[in-house]
Amino acid sequence: MVDVIELAAHLMALSARTAPKATGKDFIKTKVVTGDDLIRLAEDMIKYGEETGKRNFDRDGNNVAKSGAVLLISLSNAQEVGLNCGACGYDFCNDMPDFRKGAEFDGPICAWRLIDLGIAIGSAVKTASILNVDNRIMYRIGVSAKRLKMIEGEIVVGIPLSATGKNIYFDR
């Protein structure tokens, strides 16, 4: 079953890749995590929760350990769109400072690029749904994936995948 879940993860990555993006510029990266890397990711999530006292990193880490694969999706070196719209908090795109390292993610980031990330994530989980693969979008996975340098990006999100008789990511 794991091979099928890994295939589904790659098809989800394809959906993220081909999702529409503002001005047609692509700053989305994807990576499928399986095997030993998946266990390393799960263990780091639990460890990060213990180090920071943040809730539910252990719960989600245990879910990741039971998953067949995780799809990572990130926004990497995203340039502003150039609309001078102010949605990022700055009146002009040129006023936005370079990325600063945050506690978990880096910013500031153009709001339209964040929307691109959301559309890519939505496209990926749509594909999982079509394939009947259980999944859940998890920010906590992204924190550990970034810490472990599993994928480049200022913001990283993870989508764990499972195929069992009951969705392991709900009613936890």
Automatic annotation (TrEMBL):
InterPro entries found in the cross-reference section: DUF2148 (IPR019224)
Domain DUF2148, first and last residues per copy: 106-172
Origin: domain of life: Bacteria
Pfam families assigned to the protein according to its UniProt record, in alphabetical order: DUF2148
Name the record gives this protein: DUF2148 domain-containing protein
Lineage: Bacteria, Bacillati, Bacillota, Clostridia, Thermoanaerobacterales
